[in-house]
Design brief:
The complex is a heterotrimer. By secondary structure, chain A is of the alpha/beta class. Helix content of chain A is 44%, strand content 20%. Chain A has helices spanning 2-24, 47-66, 90-102, 114-128, 140-143, 158-171, 186-201, 220-229, 240-252, 269-275, 303-314, 320-339, 344-352, and strands at 33-40, 70-72, 75-85, 108-110, 132-134, 150-152, 177-183, 205-212, 233-237, 259-263, 282-285, 355-358, 361-364, 378-382, 385-390. In chain A, helix 3 packs parallel to helix 4, helix 9 (240-252) packs parallel to helix 10 and helix 12 packs across helix 13. Residues 21-28 of chain A have low confidence and may be disordered. The longest helix of chain C is centred in the N-terminal third of the chain and has 30 residues, at 2-31. Chain C has a two-stranded antiparallel ribbon. Chain C is mostly helical. The chains are: A alpha/beta, B mainly alpha, C mainly alpha.
Amino acid sequence: MKKRALFTLAVSTLFVGLQAVGGSSSVQAAEKTIKFGAPLPLTGALAPEGIKIQRGLNLWMDTANAKGGIKVGNERYKIKIIYQDYQSNTPRAVQTAEKLITDDKVNFLFSPFGSGATKAASGVSEKYGIPTIASTASSEAVYNQGYKYLFGTFTPNITLTQPLTNMVIAKRPETKTVAILARNDFFPLAIANVMKKSAAKRNLKMVFFEKYAIGTMDHSSALVQMKAAKPDWIFATGYLNDLILIRNQMSELGVKVPVLTMVAGPAYKEFIDGTGKLAENITSAAWWHPAVRYNGKGVMGKTENFNKLFKAKYNLVPDYAEASATAAGIIFQLAIETAGTLDHKKVRDALATMDTETFFGPIKFGANGQISSLKPPVFQIRGGKPLVVYPDVIKQIDLKFGIK
Amino acid sequence: MNKIAIFVAIVALLALPYFGNNYIVRLATVMMMYSVLALSWNFIGGMAGYPSFATAAFFGIGAYVGAILQANGIFFGAAWFAAGLIALIFAAIMGRAILHLRGHYFAIASLVMVEVLREVVNTNDQITGGGMGMNIPILKISVEASGMLFYYSMFVVALLTLATASWVYHSKLGFGFRCIQQNEAAANMLGVDSTKYKTIAFSLSAVFVGMAGAIYASWVNYIEPPDVFDIFLTIKPVVMVLLGGMGTVFGPIIGAVAFLALEEIVWRNFLTIHSAVLGLLIVLLVLFLPKGALFFDYRQFFRGRKK
Amino acid sequence: MLYLQILLNGLLLGGLYALIAVGFSLVWGVLNVINILHGTFIVLGSYIAYFAHLYFGIHPFASVIISGSVLFCLGYVIQAGIINRVIAAPVLMTLTLTFGLDLLLNNAMLIAFTADYRKLILTDSLGSYDLWGLILPLNRVAGVGLAALLTFGLYRLLRDSNIGRAIVAVRMDREAATLMGVRVNRINAVTFALGALMAGAAGSIFSIIYPISPINSGLFLGKAFVICILGGLGSVPGAMIGGIALGVIESYGALFFGPEHSTTLAFVILIALLIFRPTGIMGRKGYE
């Protein structure tokens, strides 16, 4: 009996040891590679988001590698992205990031999904001095830690809410009151708070501000209260399932408003599929939209080209999360090629001083590492498609009011 | 022989950071943490027979108490101890409220405790950061030193838990627990104050878990409610104890090692089906090895006698 | 007026909740098994309804029959083949077992259907009806009506049919039932299968109300717990009362305390009940 116990103990330790050895000494390819770590929620509640990021990254990797890879000085390096699933669990995201750095010895890192996990994992990359790009983190709280090695492709949340507010008031001056319903979660709450500020700046009266718990299955009380407050504008935040449910319940309970804004579902095809006709006239803002037109440095070329390549590979129209991931890859590539080396500090400096344009938009980072050059488009769902209403240079349609 | 084996093991574990790479040290730290959780659950679930699902509650309390104290400048070591203490007090109080329930009802009540605590933390965002989580300041020491610090800290807590478990097992307390598990009414008649003993068991299942939670928070530098009040933090220790042998002293540790090994292998190689594999493991365990895969007569082992 | 609307919402929500809980309560009360799979069964029922609608145009209310049957068979097989082996084991064992099975089934569904949320959209939705200022969401009303029908059906089954009475007999006294010639193993399987059937039916009805994804299974399960404690185990009227009570409590709770607290409120009530009156509103004792 005791032999069996010792045996199992020994075997377990051996297994672990083998994995440790097997993991670190990964097969060295004959060609030179640059390793990028990508800790993603490929399973669990955030899996849909993680998979989007993976799509964006893979498109970059395949396209760039097909053209010979990244040019470092006089040599060409192939890109290798090492994915690790952290199962939508934030502490695990941190551990995964560290493992990718110390164990898989990645040269550079992509942040995990969302502001919360990005903030958590950023401590690790700062600790090891690994340049990291976050493709899905917008909250300023992520970038105010004084870190030097973290960069992000999303502008602060207020760049989404302020232009939207200005637009709504410009096109419908009689808008006076706003009601906000926010999911009690890092990003949805952050952007709701920022919306509060934007509304206050334009003297809109906030007649309702409530948070709902993660996993809420019924919003009828909140919606009924909102209805009683008769707002001109409802601003709801949450993830896909929340927003689909809220929109459906609004319709059931007869909640009608001139303006309905939702963040961050409407950009996704899944949202439109899930709400059908009810999606009509819902507004939203995002950091990118396939209708934008930018000239592109980097292997994607200009925006139309990116859209084309994405469609060819996945048979889908790209959304902002996927585009941001690809952009993160492009930005790394440009920085490395500018620096001419894989040295962490030099690449970091190249990122900090970058001033260029890609399919995603103009790329320039602020002192805190967060991008400062984007002009996030505002769009509205019309005829089952998200169409841009702002800025004017790429406007596809005029803003319409009225939610049934 | 057995005492020598333990001594050798302890020395080897102490020396681990010096001949293992970062990955090994990190893995070993997790192993220590799992051992603490499993050993702690064993007090109330294995020895006393009360199916508690409250481990996650204690872990979360420990994590947040540790985080809040450190955010207010308290030295991390003190914060960790305080966290354990608060978890213990909480368990004692909650225990008074729910330990009179039996079987399923107790399990549910302890489960619900976790949910309620999570929402309480979520709501009081002034202190806890709510849904946006809390950052714990990074210690200004080198990466290697940091790894070693957290490894040794968890190791010490694990050792403490093990020592306590061993002491309890051989003491009147442990005897009382086993009596309660077999037949609580009879135990009462025999003069075992079951209420007092159950509360002690429950509190024991909390104090080290609380410390581990606080250390964990300092280790990962960022916590948010769904991650530290996570039901899996309860389920996994239960599976570990089932694996290693319920109610024994070393069973939980063996179960923890085996479980961790399995988890690492599955996580690395079976990206999409890891929960299925965990589920399968649980099902097989319950169906075929309810007393533990590695269940061995612990007392025989340590007396070196053959059975 | 606001209060009345919220009451109405609460009642409708409660009707749906009752359907979630009734199968769960039956299994718990009769078999003394906490079926962690229940939430996943509901989601599976939703998927069946979704695909039946997508590929064959079957209305979700009609596919209740399909989901119910499929889940009945699945439940029967799972119970007879796996759970029954440890039916006499301590609480922890069966709970852990159903937890493990749930991980398996949930992961299988995740692989088969992906985590993407689906939504069943009816082309001819019933819309809403304005009744003297009160808004009646007709889809929900119809759903609750169907739920009530199903629940009533189950109630009659338990009271009047042979198998129903055998189930109740097993619930009351397992040994005595065996002595009376009841084949307890078969009853165990049938009871579990019935619980699964109700879950599948609930899933079908829910498919037009909630987005569908394996990620949601835990939410349904959480509600089922609270309702069972609220209403008492193993009794159909208990599940109904518990469900309606929870619906109303949550709706008013959201009004008075804010939507972020409504789930916590439910759990706090649950703990209070467990501490002071574990047998629930109906006072029917479950197992110890």
